[in-house]
Amino acid sequence: MRLDARIASLNNRHAALEAQIFEEDHRPRPDAETLARLKREKLRLKEEMERLRVSQPH
What we know:
The protein is mainly α. The protein is 81% helix and 0% strand. It has helices at residues 3-25, 32-55. Helix 1 (3-25) packs antiparallel against helix 2 (32-55). The longest helix has 24 residues, at 32-55. The two termini are 18 Å apart.
């Protein structure tokens, strides 16, 4: 997979997690464990995207 395609894929997953976090956070009784798990995964994806962008040749 090309680097650009990998970053785009990660970005799509990141956006999907953001939507899941929003939905969970706006439920009448949000699950704190679920929110924490989703936020950790979102951060992991953000860090991986940044690492790939930095390593990408210009």
